Amino acid sequence: MSNVGIVIVSHSPLVAEGTADMVRQMVGDEVPLAWCGGNGHGGLGTNVEAIMGAIDKAWSEAGVAILVDLGGAETNSEMAVEMIGEPRAHKIIVCNAPIVEGAVMAATEASGGASLREVVATAHELSPS
Amino acid sequence: MSPGTLEKNGTLEKSGSLDKTATLDKTGTMDKFDLKTLISVTADTIAAHAEELTRLDQAIGDGDHGLNMKRGFEAVRAEADMFATKPLPDALKAIGTKLVMTVGGASGPLFGTLFMALGKEISAEPDRANLMSAFGKAIEAVAARGKSQVGQKTMLDVLQPVHDALLQGKTGSEIADVADSAADATVPMKALRGRASFLGDRSIGHMDAGARSTALLVRAVAETIEGQA
């Protein structure tokens, strides 16, 4: 698929899955989408390996925008991007945006064929500063 | 790395912790050092203090630090034999990657980055200057990963004083004390990074859990190396 992919990374698998449901409701299957949540051991948290897997699943040559909730999700997502490395890393951006609103708006933008830069900018508009 | 490549005593830091031979005695020579021992003592101290770390994190964070660190260091311990067969830079990078994959939370990438950056910067047979430089670069990498700096109530508030103490040529037990004091010094700080920063002024009066775990690791490594010297 040529549309930008969306990855949702929450500390809670329920939040991640619920956010993905809301994205699907908006864009159906027009956007590559994956989510992950939880520490991989049944608890709340985020997990680099799971994030790398989600990026693979939502991969698009147009790039992938990652929406995260709290600090650890951001740090782990950045770590995952670094470990994936080039040539893909420069096409993966961790957004600074609220996870639910950001995912829905970014995916909606992506479904129209927008570039990664445009998708990320749409998500960033939701964040003050 | 071969014995005797360091010029002065007091080389007792994280890179040393994973360095098979970076033990300096009072005459300035290095003894053979067993990486597996360092992996074992660091995993031991984290396991012994896991509940304390969790309590510290519960006070001003999400309360998973002790369990997360224990999981990660036990995972490293489980593969100690494999790490010990690698050249120093590769061993450090592999241990860092293992921590990234197993610790979780924000601590996984932060502690993992510390070791991965050390492995990237250190030479296979480092001299003292290379060790110091690699540790300094590793601290910079941790700061970049956490978008943080000294004074924000984080592990950097222990790492930086430890680096300074190393530069001053302090002994292992002195360095361990510096690390403990530095962790204590995070108590009156206001957290500016991580979950604790959500609490604002209410983060004051509690020790940062990451600073405490860093100090525990430094003490375990420094005392072990000193004991071997």
From TrEMBL, chain A:
UniProt-listed Gene3D superfamilies: Phosphotransferase system, mannose-type IIA component
Keywords of this entry: Kinase, Transferase
Top-level class of the enzyme under EC nomenclature: transferase
InterPro entries, per the entry: DhaM, DhaM_N, PTS_EIIA_man-typ, PTS_EIIA_man-typ_sf
Gene Ontology process terms (BP): glycerol catabolic process; phosphoenolpyruvate-dependent sugar phosphotransferase system
Keyword set includes Metal-binding: no
Domain of life where this protein originates: Bacteria
EC number of the protein: 2.7.1.121
Example GO molecular function: phosphoenolpyruvate-glycerone phosphotransferase activity
GO CC aspect terms: membrane
Family matches, as Pfam families: EIIA-man
PTS EIIA type-4 domain location: 3-129
Catalytic activity: dihydroxyacetone + phosphoenolpyruvate = dihydroxyacetone phosphate + pyruvate
Subunit structure: Homodimer. The dihydroxyacetone kinase complex is composed of a homodimer of DhaM, a homodimer of DhaK and the subunit DhaL.
Function text: Component of the dihydroxyacetone kinase complex, which is responsible for the phosphoenolpyruvate (PEP)-dependent phosphorylation of dihydroxyacetone. DhaM serves as the phosphoryl donor. Is phosphorylated by phosphoenolpyruvate in an EI- and HPr-dependent reaction, and a phosphorelay system on histidine residues finally leads to phosphoryl transfer to DhaL and dihydroxyacetone.
PANTHER family xref list: PEP-DEPENDENT DIHYDROXYACETONE KINASE, PHOSPHORYL DONOR SUBUNIT DHAM
Protein name: phosphoenolpyruvate--glycerone phosphotransferase
Lineage: Bacteria, Pseudomonadati, Pseudomonadota, Alphaproteobacteria, Hyphomicrobiales
From TrEMBL, chain B:
Gene3D superfamilies in the record: 1.25.40.340
InterPro entries in alphabetical order: DhaK_L_YcgS, DhaL_dom, DhaL_dom_sf, Dihydroxyacetone_Kinase
Biological process terms in GO annotation: glycerol catabolic process
GO cellular component: cytosol
Domain DhaL: 33-223
MF term (GO), any: glycerone kinase activity
Keywords: Kinase, Transferase
Source organism, top-level taxon: Bacteria
A Pfam short name: Dak2
PANTHER family: TRIOKINASE/FMN CYCLASE, TRIOKINASE_FMN CYCLASE
UniProt-recorded name of the protein: Dihydroxyacetone kinase, C-terminal domain
Lineage per the UniProt record: Bacteria, Pseudomonadati, Pseudomonadota, Alphaproteobacteria, Hyphomicrobiales
